[in-house]
Fold this protein.
Amino acid sequence: MNKILSFFLTFFIFIYPINSIASSTKSIGEKGDPKNIDRVIKIKMYDNYYEPNSITVKKGETIKFVITNLGEMVHEYNIGTKEMHIKHQPEMQRLIDHEIITFDKIDKKKMKEMSKKDHSLAHSHSNSVMLEPQTKGEIIWKFSKDIELEMACNIPGHYESGMVGKIITK
Ligand SMILES: [Cu+2]
């Protein structure tokens, strides 16, 4: 295929939809200030569930999530509405189709290359973290909105098999 054409195809089927998700995160709260953390919540990820799988936060609270992947597969911890997760799942499928995510590896180099074509891709996911087995990550999130949220892993098949939990805002 013509190189220019294939670049644009990649842009539209791969990068563009991820950007559209990033802009919608404002409706669910905001990236928290690391100097202003109210509480730390530890989350463990297994194949395919979270522990705990339900948390309660106060409106306005800034939570630092410390997430550990204790499973054997790559997992994601993503804060969003049910609709956001459902919308995000085909995008995750694309990462798998491009072999950026395999069973237990994330090809960060390939991911970085994709983000060079679009800078916003590199830092657009302040509400989610994707982790290889036996690795740890953090999210600092301020729950400033009154909205029903879920923590979910959008790697194909995981949400359906129970890798989803409630975030109750009070
Ligand atoms: Cu998962």
Q: What stands out?
A: Confidence is low (pLDDT under 50) at residues 19-23.
